[in-house]
Amino acid sequence: MDTETEQYLLENHHHNLYRINEQIERENGVLKYHLCLGKRAFKFYLKKRSVWNYDVVAVKMD
């Protein structure tokens, strides 16, 4: 995560995080969600750790 993305998430953590679309992309075992927080869109990349748990691999702000 770059500094700009980190700063935005810290400043706007009180907003609701919601999905932009229902489509979830999967590539090489990594899930990609398109989410929105406040007025910014993000791509969250998650890797499955166990049946119910995922690790955040990366977060990119659009």
List the helices and strands and how they pair.
Layout (H helix, E strand, L loop, with lengths): L2 H9 L5 E3 L5 E3 L2 E8 L2 E9 L5 E8 L1
Describe the structure.
The protein is globular and about 30 Å long. The chain starts with a helix and ends with a strand. It has one domain (3-61). The longest helix has 9 residues, at 3-11. By secondary structure, the chain is mostly beta strands. The chain has one helix at residues 3-11; strands at 17-19, 25-27, 30-37, 40-48, 54-61. Strand 4 and strand 5 (54-61) form a beta hairpin. The model has no long low-confidence stretch (mean pLDDT 87). Strands 1, 2, 3, 4 and 5 form a five-stranded antiparallel beta sheet that branches.
Can I get a quick summary?
The chain is 15% helix and 50% strand. It has 62 residues and is mainly β.
User: How many independent structural domains?
Assistant: 1
**Assembly type of the shown chains?**
single chain
Percentage of helical residues? 10-25%
Number of strands: 5
The unreliable regions are none
> Which band does the percent of strand residues land in?
over 45%
What structural category do the secondary elements indicate?
Answer: mainly beta
- The number of helical elements comes to 1
Biggest pleated-sheet summary: 5 strands, antiparallel
Shape type: globular
Q: Tell me, rounded to a whole number, the average pLDDT.
A: 87
